[in-house]
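Suppose you are handed a protein chain with no further information: no name, no annotation, nothing but its sequence. What can you learn? This example shows the usual starting point.
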Amino acid sequence: MAAAKPSLTLRRWFNAAPARVYAAWTDPEKLAQWWGPGTPDDMIVADMDVRVGGDFRIGFAYAGERHDVHGTYQEVVPGETLVFSWFWKSTPERVSRVTVRCRPDGEGCMLTLIHEQFFDEAARLSHTRGWTASLNKLEAYFSRER
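A reasonable first move is to predict its three-dimensional structure. Written in structure tokens, the prediction is:
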């Protein structure tokens, strides 16, 4: 029996309505303000066809290198849920899956991010650091946006 592939689950409360949090994940201009390890100036491309079967491509520069991630939307519930495949251009054979859920919680939104089917534990740890940093930047984005 094959061992289960590593996964991660992160939960974060945002002082923003679920529709605003969802829009930050689906509008390329908003996404460029918080996504990734660098600054908005490091974003090279954010192409997003947010519909079931639509593709996305996000490219950014960091530490002197270009990084590109791709995927296909598998589930889209506007204002609530996104599910998409995820792979880096440098390792297209390592396809994983990301689920983003936005739920009302008091005056804000509880976001749950599940990233599953990692190639190995090192990939899970690297993505945990990356997603945590991006969610920190998303929180700062909402405080600037008010």
